[in-house]
């Protein structure tokens, strides 16, 4: 894949899902966590956090049936995501979670409220951006590779109109 293009497909366990099965794709991310807000007698809040994982829902439609029939929902799966996530910080240095290896992360400086592309170098899980004069902050885009369990898989179709819709939900292990 050309490094200058965005993700046009996603893969499940290394198998690329056919583009015509996912002509229209939507992906959402949700932060899950074992956290609880405690209040003191004075009313002051204190957040206690035990763990944090990501849940993602991929849904879409296309002209072909999605190959979901043989998916083992009891096994751990790896999902190469199609929608980018972003991190922002004051320093041009980011530690990334597991990412797709076929799409390099992208880096930007925020200058006057605008994103200005800057060169990015990835070493392991650390992304270093070239500093930019007058930058207010820095942003990086990356495409996650999530490992977890499929908690919901569905597909349906109308063969007369060649319109097939589908959805899958993965929660990090």
Which features would summarize this protein structure in a list?
single chain; 173 residues; mainly beta; Elongation Factor Tu (Ef-tu), domain 3; 7-stranded antiparallel sheet; 58% strand
Outline of the structure:
This protein has strands at residues 11-12, 15-16, 24-39, 45-62, 76-80, 85-89, 93-95, 106-111, 114-118, 120-123, 126-129, 137-142, 145-158, 163-172.
Topology readout:
Layout: E1 11-12, E2 15-16, E3 24-39, E4 45-62, E5 76-80, E6 85-89, E7 93-95, E8 106-111, E9 114-118, E10 120-123, E11 126-129, E12 137-142, E13 145-158, E14 163-172
Antiparallel strand pairs: 1-2, 1-5, 3-4, 4-14, 5-13, 6-12, 7-11, 8-9, 8-12, 10-11, 13-14
Assess the beta-strand content as a share of residues: over 45%
Silhouette: globular
- The figure for the number of domains is 2
Rg for CA atoms: 19 Å
Q: Give the topology string: H per helix, E per strand.
A: EEEEEEEEEEEEEE
Provide the low-confidence segments as ranges: none
Strand order of the largest sheet: 2-1-5-13-14-4-3
CATH architecture annotation name of the largest domain: Beta Barrel
The count of strands amounts to 14
CA(first)-CA(last) distance: 28 Å
Find the structural class using helix and strand composition.
mainly beta
Mean pLDDT: 93
Please tally the helical runs, counting DSSP H or I stretches of 4 or more residues.
Answer: 0
CATH third-tier fold name of the largest domain: Elongation Factor Tu (Ef-tu), domain 3
The main sheet comes to: 7 strands, antiparallel
The level-1 CATH class of the largest domain: Mainly Beta
